[in-house]
């Protein structure tokens, strides 16, 4: 069991010893490996809740699921229409988006049903992102467009309103997209090979800021406070942009002297992925030079280099799942194989999603607390003391209910007296 708050999940194109790997970023130690799934393609590696990990094969039309605490994958084959260009899983774990060529398909993970197939882009779709509330998602690719979709309208297969809007501000293929926190009120960041990084309001599509760099861009990341933007370019450099600086115009051309003060130097080839830790102190970058570098953000110094066997396709921080290192716990992958044909309207209306819900009394929840630790043969928490704590809590609940009742009655009297006057 590890005591890390955050770990790193990475993959490369070789997959010689593992398809993806979990690392302790402080020491560079391998904590867990997921094997026999083939090389994972760019933007196809995701955790699904705290239960499993999914990756899309780089060359085969196949998705692979691993129980989060097992090295071997599920025996179920998840076949696709083509090799996945991008994969996204909704935060609630109910929906999975898979891109193949210029279209993408929406699957229901609990049932395996193919809910919708959308062919809107003219070029290969390379990026798919869900909002943090799972109500919308974003697609982008080589046709230089970024499109924002409604998940509910896509499931209903309604053409009107299914697409909220599309952004056509780029002149070359979009290489990476990031959706911030806050549902439709979040920020949308996108970078392109045309050397520009742009920030939008996700709900309206209004352009907030456009920053032009001297080299084609390949990756983007925001810190948790959304106060600093990080972009990686095709030459191996990573730049940091402070979004809280003095007021400026909507379009900014960064000069060379400004770039020199905010550059991270270490990679020799194109940066493929970026991720920022929760405390905003650490930056993770993967590159085609077969390495993942852990950076200290404020000093721009390398804390650790994690070597790989081939170009890195995915690298991001992940809050340590509780079940990852519980080897005795059985976590089977509950998802059936994907259907090849899009389901009909009647099938979609009959679809049922089972969400776990537990309604227990205060006494039952208290009794399921951590087991007492025995010291010298004597339990640290006796049954009598536990019963006393429960009684005290129940008395406190009754006292608060009585106070709330008196406040309500007093408010009613005050309102009625004002009405009579």
TrEMBL record:
UniProt repeat feature WD, residue ranges: 118-151, 264-305
Keyword Repeat: yes
Entry keywords, A to Z: Repeat, WD repeat
GO cellular component annotations of the record: nuclear pre-replicative complex; rixosome complex
UniProt GO BP: DNA-templated DNA replication; rRNA processing
Region ranges (Disordered): 363-386
InterPro entries documented for this protein: Quinoprotein_ADH-like_sf (IPR011047), WD40/YVTN_repeat-like_dom_sf (IPR015943), WD40_rpt (IPR001680), WDR18/Ipi3/RID3 (IPR045227)
A Pfam family matched in the record: WD40
Classification via PANTHER family: WD REPEAT-CONTAINING PROTEIN 18 (PTHR18763:SF0), WD-REPEAT PROTEIN 18 (PTHR18763)
Name this polypeptide is given: WD repeat-containing protein 18
Native source species: Anopheles quadriannulatus
